[in-house]
Amino acid sequence: MFSKIWTKQSTKESFNKIEQLKEKIEEADTIIIGSGAGLSTSAGFTYTGDRFTKYFSDFQKKYGFQDMYSGGFYPFESFEEHWAYWSRYIYINRYMDAPKPVYEKLYDLVKEKDYFVLTTNVDHCFQKAGFDKYRLFYTQGDYGLFQCSVPCHQETYDNEEEIRKMVEAQGFVIGTRIEKSTNTLHLQPMRQLKTEKELTLPEGIIPKMAIPSELVPVCPKCGKPMSMNLRADNTFVEDEGWHNAAERYSEFLRRHKHTKTVFLELGTGYNTPGIIKYNFWNMTDSWDDATYACINLNEAAAPTEIKEKSICVGADIGEVLNQIFEK
Questions:
Q1: How far is it, in rounded angstroms, from Cα 71 to Cα 28?
Q2: How far is 117 from 311, CA to CA, in rounded Å?
Q3: How far is it, in rounded angstroms, from Cα 36 to Cα 290?
Q4: 3-class SS at 251?
Q5: Is 148 annotated as a binding residue?
Q6: Is 222 marked as binding a ligand?
Q7: Among 125, 132, 149, 143, which Cα is nearest to 236's?
Q8: Does 125 carry a binding-site annotation?
Q9: 3-state helix, strand, coil in the chain (%, to 5)
Q10: Can you give the residue ranges of every domain in the chain?
Q11: Distance (Å, whole) CA 295 – CA 209
């Protein structure tokens, strides 16, 4: 229903837009957050650069991929190697805390409001920051869940214990307070006190690139390999918890349609715009007292049809939150 003409805000306009956004949030009865990967990137969960090299330099050297995401699609020759890679990936992006307190600041911004969160992120950052789990709908799965790869049944399984065993079997240490950090897996040591959740590699240890066969997860019902509960194809399991969250979100929308609402879109792009972006545009257009607010470093835009009801800020989400609290 919307045209292809976009209304974008330049960086020079950001200051005024942030002031407007703060006012709209303060005035709102309801905040509906839609978040994508850009929010976690702002919090420091980057999948490239030093963070990738620190934990995956051995896989990078052997296979040539340059980021975690690409490595996740690599056709490893064995399940033992597949889960060696994925257990590191899952642990640092699900069970370690984000380097920057962006989610915590977002929670402080909305905690006194009637809020709900719709997210395509799978890293559990909202719950770790204090958001009520009954006000969250993770549409695309969770790094912290296994499912049958077939799937032979519609259930998911918490994987923290299994993931911890996998990374420890490779030589990594979890939560030990050692004064050690590395830019690569076993080079260039720097003194830094690690946190209780930090994944570290003791000095002089070269990590294994395969886990023991007995740690490879298999379905408890059919014995086939387990997989991550991540939406990639029609094998994705939407378990009871997923459907309950979907129903709570739908009911929240129904009950709040006539309230003063801010649709706060954070870090979403155009990979899956039908989940958050397009729906937020449509609801902003049709709801009488709604504002569409978009914060995105590279893609802050809105259709001309809702221009007068939109606030678009092309800046880092964490920086914008800082400025809101400073005003």
A1: 42
A2: 19
A3: 21
A4: helix
A5: yes
A6: yes
A7: 149
A8: no
A9: 40, 20, 40
A10: 29-259
A11: 39
Length, in residues, of the chain: 327
**Rounded CA gap, 309 and 281, in Å?**
10
What is the DSSP annotation of 99-118?
SSTHHHHHHHHHTTSEEEEE
pLDDT of residue 326: 87
Per the listing, tokens 């709900």 go with: 116
Quick check: 243 and 132 in contact, CB under 8 A?
Answer: no
Crossing angle for the helix pair 160-169 and 79-90, to the nearest 10 degrees: 110
Torsion of CA 114, 120, 122, 127, to 10 degrees: -10
DSSP state, 124?
-
> CB 189: neighbour CB atoms within 10 A?
13
Segment-wise mean pLDDT, segments of 10 residues, the chain, 327 residues: 55 79 98 98 97 98 97 97 99 97 98 98 98 98 98 99 99 71 44 69 96 99 98 98 99 98 97 96 98 94 95 96 90
Residue type, 259: T
- CA dist 123 → 25, 86, 112, 319 (Å): 26, 14, 24, 21
List the Cα angle 252/300/48 in 5-degree steps: 100
DSSP SS3 for 209: coil
Place of tokens 């006539």: 258
Pair of tokens at residue 27: 């005035």
Q: What is the pTM of this model?
A: 0.91
Annotation-wise, does 294 bind a ligand? no
Phi, psi of 267 (to 5 degrees): 70, 30
Residue listed under structure tokens 């380097």: 99
Helix (H) or strand (E) holding 63: helix 49-63
pLDDT attached to residue 285? 97
What are the two backbone dihedrals, phi and then psi, of residue 277, each rounded to the nearest 5 degrees? -55, -55
Q: Which strand (E) or helix (H) includes residue 189?
A: strand 189-193
Pairwise CA distance, residues 151 & 148, whole Å = 5
